[in-house]
Amino acid sequence: MTLADHGRAPVAPADVERWLTELALTPDTRAERDGVVSWDLTLDGRRRFDIPVTLILDPTLALVVWVHFAPPIGDMFRKSYRRLLRWNDELPFVKFAIAEDERPILTAELPIAGLDRDVLGAAIARTLVICDQLLEESASWLWIGGHIPEQRERVSRQAGLFDRYADRLAELAPS
Questions:
Q1: What's the whole-model pTM score?
Q2: Where are the alpha helices (DSSP H) in the chain?
Q3: By residue range, what is the domain housing residue 55?
């Protein structure tokens, strides 16, 4: 059964681009291949900055929020994989995996049915909050020696996004 059978049109790339504009998110690049469109963005958490994010839209199936969480893992794999599995168990609505190049990725898959600006915005905000929450635990993957750079003066470009979806981010608040 297709979306049209349910009286709903597929989500078009123009819809996603309009939502990104409404959310004040500007893609760095856009690509299209075989009917699948992707947008690369560079976004900020509240504590972690310049996070590479790719949105991948298959207009008939899903939109995937793909966070390039860290460079390829070069340490003891068993320990890293255990950490990713634990995060998969502890964090709702997202999944961690290893890309073909051994890079840890964080994903959120959003089915086309019910997809709108706020579903997309909340998913992006949620992935950025998770990047912030896991900053200390992932520092050794992100920076040589695991030393988090001093960025006290820096302000997140996505502060409005966090404010807009604060109620949907409550499930990620530390208990």
A1: 0.86
A2: 13-22, 77-90, 117-133, 135-142, 159-164
A3: 4-168
